[in-house]
Amino acid sequence: MTDSSLTNTHTNKKLTTELLSPAKNLECGLAAINHGADAVYIGASQFGARAAASNSIEDIETLVKYAHRYRSKVFVALNTILTDNQLQDAEKLIHQIYNAGADALIIQDMGVLKMNLPPIALHASTQTDNRTIEKVKFLEQAGFSRVVLARELSLNQIGEISKNTQVELEAFVHGALCVSYSGQCYMSQAMCGRSANRGQCAQYCRLPYQLSDSQGNILVKNKHLLSLKDLDLSEHLKEMIEAGVMSFKIEGRLKEVDYVKNITAYYRKKLDIILEGNAHLSKSSVGKTTFFFEPNPEKSFRRSSTDYFLNERHKGIYQPETPKSLGELIGKVHYIGRNFFEMQNGHLLNNGDGLCFINKHGDLTGFRVNRVDKKQIFPAELPRMDVGVTLYRNQDQAFEKTLTGKTAERKIQIKILFSEIEKGFNLQLTDEQNIKIDFEIECPKQAAQKPEAVIENIKNQFSKLGNTIYEAIDIDIQLNQAWFFPASQLSEWRRLAIEMLDEKREKCYERETPANIERTDFSSKSLTYLGNVTNKNAETFYREHGVENIEFGFEVKAQEGVPVMFTKHCIKYEMGWCPREGFKDKIEEPLYLKNNDQRYELRFDCKKCEMQIFLSK
Question: Within this chain, do residues 355 and 501 fall inside the same structural domain, yes or no?
Answer without folding.
Answer: no
